[in-house]
Amino acid sequence: MVFCYLGVYVVLRRIVFVSVALTQVGAAGVALGLWLNWAPSALGFASIFLAVLALPLLQQERRLHQESFLGAVYTAASSLALIFVAQSPAEEAHLHHILFGELLTVSPLLVAEMAVIAVLVLVFHLVFFKEILLISFDPDFASSLGLKARTLDLFFYLSLGLTIAVGVRVAGALVVFAYLVLPPLTALLVCQRMVWVFVFSIAIGLFCSAVALYLSFYHLNLPSGPLTAACCALPLLTAALYLLVKRSQPVRHSS
Fold this sequence. Notes:
CATH superfamily: ABC transporter involved in vitamin B12 uptake, BtuC
Number of strands: 0
Largest sheet: none
CATH architecture: Orthogonal Bundle
Distance between the termini: 48 Å
CATH topology: ABC transporter involved in vitamin B12 uptake, BtuC
Structural class: mainly alpha
CATH class: Mainly Alpha
Order of helices and strands: HHHHHHHHHHHH
Radius of gyration: 19 Å
């Protein structure tokens, strides 16, 4: 689950709002491609690419907080996605799939496309694992060591954007965002070592996906996309409640 892997960086870098804005930008690009009947994944990535290039410019603006711009981007992209879908054939089906996802009806071609992108992105991240992890924690220190932090940062956002662009077509914006945030948050709550955070995040995503698809197909008459997102939220809720109960208990001092 490449989303659960990348989501660890999303949470560590505190760019959750950036990821949700990019997800909606990708959804708008995909919707435009469906309307024009021309390479939805490519248009989704192109729109995210432009948004990624604009991020440094937004960060330089001191008069307004970055989250204000992200809110504006999210609102505009969501509106455009709805408008583009309304102009395309099979309007209702496209709208539901782009926004909420329907994993049980994904075509084998889209699955293969997602698999190829996931492998390429994971290879890139495994090759530059230490460097990307270092700039995620302390970009200034990484620059002092001679690492090209800005270049690696750009490639990180491009890998994230490419994955989101294809993922929106496969799973929908809701599920993509759920994968990027919920399993990584759970893993960071329960794991101490970073390697296990990545492993546990991926394991949670796989397990929750399997449970949601099984329940959706065999037992519950519910859409698989929202059910997957809800299943991903349960481990996070359980871990958070456990930590709250644990911290509320009085500390016992040995005599």
